[in-house]
């Protein structure tokens, strides 16, 4: 038996399965014949007993109970071998199924590789044709036939003349020049009669902000407390009322040490109501104070943001001539008034 079990290696599983089925069939038939011979007293076939190879010393034509027991044990052994062969067959089927699936995947991959190879071959031929055409165009010097020639010509010979022509032919209106000159005039020249210590007129300003302008700007002004609190810069909330002044001690000590008076529950309720009534008034007063502080702090900012007043700058170079003309006009007016009075 062990030899037969160990033999199941290196040979097809179908041969072992067919052999085990035939052995099981032969032993079971012989066992049933022994049962019939015991029941009827008929003789057995000695050739079948020899084929079974039972460990019997004397093989007789008549069935005995000992022979029946040996046949049953032999049938059990053959059945075990047959069951082991079936298990191996099941494993073989699983492995064969996996092999078939892998073969299908390999076939699909082979098809994909073949299609990719064909596409690669087509692309290669297409690129070869394009390169050959471009080489011909480059050798012939026809820049209009291929894109490569156009790029090379643009890189080798930049069109500087055309760009210069565009710059020269570009028109600029006088209004644009005047407006631009007006914008930069306040920072490029000083006013007539400028003095270094005197403040500048509203139309003129220095090219860079001065110290006074920087000090009066928003960067040098301290923001109000509620703004500091909003950005997390204030350590104490100034808008909340302080309750320390309103809280009274529950014990009042008189002149003597022993005289200690404790307030009743009604008095405590009255004090709490008074404190609750005073809280909104204190909050309103503090909010008004904070608003006044913010307004006072924002006044320099508003003064900066307000547009400067227009100043009439007298740029007359000959004030004496103008004054004499004005005097003549006044004399004429006086003469006319006198004539009217005499009339």
What would your notes on this structure say?
By secondary structure, this protein is mainly α. Among the domains are: 2-132, no CATH class; 222-305, no CATH class. Helix content is 66%, strand content 1%. A two-stranded antiparallel ribbon has the order 1-2. Helix 2 packs antiparallel against helix 4. Residues 1-8, 237-263, 300-324 and 338-343 have low confidence and may be disordered.
List keywords for this structure.
343 residues; mainly alpha; two-stranded antiparallel sheet; 11 helices; disordered N terminus; disordered C terminus
How are the SSEs placed, and which strands pair?
Blueprint: H1 2-6, H2 13-40, H3 46-52, H4 65-140, H5 147-156, H6 160-169, H7 174-188, H8 211-215, H9 225-230, E1 252-253, E2 260-261, H10 265-305, H11 319-342
Antiparallel strand pairs: 1-2
Helix pairs in contact: 2-4
Widest β-sheet, arrangement of strands: 1-2
Instruction: Summarize the biggest pleated sheet.
Output: 2 strands, antiparallel
Oligomer: single chain
Shape: elongated
- Number of distinct helices: 11
- Ends distance: 169 Å
Question: What's the number of extended β-strand segments?
Answer: 2
Strand percent estimate: under 5%
Average of per-residue pLDDT values: 68
Helix content: 55-70%
- Based on secondary structure, the structural category is mainly alpha
Order of helices and strands: HHHHHHHHHEEHH
Cα-based radius of gyration, to the nearest Å: 61 Å
**Unreliable stretches, pLDDT < 50, 5 or more residues?**
1-8, 237-263, 300-324, 338-343
GO cellular component, one term: mediator complex
Pfam families: Med4 (PF10018)
Biased composition (Acidic residues): 317-343
GO molecular function: transcription coregulator activity
